[in-house]
Amino acid sequence: MSEEPTRGRSGADIASNGPPPEAAAAFFDGTVMHQRMKPVGHRFTYDVFSLMVDLDRLEEANGLSRLFSVNRFNLLSFYEKDHGGRTPRGLRQSIDALLAEAGIQMPPARILLVCYPRVLGKVFNPLAVYYAYAADGSLTAVIYEVRNTFGERHTYVCPVGAGEIGPAGLRQSAEKIFHVSPFIALSARYHFRMLPPGKSIRWRILETDAEGPLLSATFAGDRKPLTTGTLLSLVARMPMLTAKIVGAIHWEALKLFLKGVRYIPRPDPPKADASLWKNGARKPLGGAQPANAPSPSFPHPHILGEAAE
Fold it and tell me: How far is CA 52 from the centre of its chain?
């Protein structure tokens, strides 16, 4: 089936966006935007591209381009060990185990992961999102895998509840329990507004506190096939994606500092490395937070969060 992209629009909905991509892997070419509302206004946008992979078809994805590899160095690559990490088994088995612990006993028929790829072996994923689908194609759970620049990670597991998904997309929320930004305290809440992957993808994460909105972070991208031609085109436009992200983080953090935004020291991470969010309640999942172990990236990287918030 053709994987030719359709140019997305801000008003896209689930019906017009179509079903999840059938390909084993694809790109989403788009833009990240941050809009900070208080204590000072601050806004920026950057062009980025993300990778979508089907966790059951990694071998097939590995053969889509000579310049893309799974679990092996290449111009662009995807490594299972960069994600999950809850079992010594493969990533799909790790996510199945996490969902089972969260009460979803029937393994999903399909799991799609949207994340940044490694570029020449370097990557940092401040946010990676897993979409779990039932055999009938319905979305049953979304997993938000969040990292900070201290080598820590927390995974928010959110089963799709009644009324959370509608024509405009998915609406979920979770209390912020994991330190990401040195400029935003933990006394905040995430409101996720997500258009699952189809012809395009849309993420909107609104952070609020007791007094209202703090920060809106978005990613909007259009699907492109994972071919050598597309890969070269994206890399030509964004030749060092990871370096660009890291540079943007430090530059935007400097701007916030110069604007006088208060620095917040890092608190201890949650004891559990994952949490279940269902009907507004939280349940710790999994084991202890792993020892700080930086991913294969440049020092202190971030884009949907951390210093750039």
Answer: 10
Relative to beta strand 189-195, strand 110-115 is unpaired
| pTM of the predicted model as reported, rounded to 2 decimal places | 0.89
pLDDT, averaged across the chain = 87
> Quick one: the chain helix, strand, coil %, rounded to 5?
15, 40, 45
Question: What residues pair up with 139 in beta bridges, in sequence order?
Answer: 133
The pLDDT of residue 53 is above 80: yes
Taking the C-alpha atoms of residue 28 and residue 52, their distance in angstroms, rounded to an integer, is 7
Residue 263: band (very low, low, confident or very high) from pLDDT cuts 50, 70, 90: confident
Q: What percent of the chain has pLDDT over 90?
A: 61
* Rounded Cα–Cα distance for residues 225 and 201 (Å): 14
Closest to 287 (Cα-Cα) out of 173, 154, 125, 91: 154
More confident of the two residues 295 and 80: 80
Pair 190, 176: CB distance under 8 Å: yes
CA distances from 119 to 2, 123, 195 (A): 26, 6, 26
Return the amino acid letter for 42. H
pLDDT of 294 reads: 45
Within 8 A by CB and 6+ apart from 308, the residues are 34, 44, 181, 248, 249, 252, 253, 302
Can you read off the two tokens belonging to residue 128? 């990676």
Q: Kindly give, in sequence order, each residue whose CB lies less than 8 Å from that of residue 70, ignoring residues fewer than 6 positions away.
A: 53, 58, 59, 61, 62, 77, 78, 79, 80
Residue 288 has pLDDT above 60, yes or no: no
> Rounded CA gap, 204 and 215, in Å?
10
In which band, very low, low, confident or very high, does the pLDDT at 300 lie, cut at 50, 70 and 90?
very low
Residue in this structure with the two tokens 């089907």, named with its chain if needed: 54
What 3-state class would DSSP assign to 234?
Answer: helix
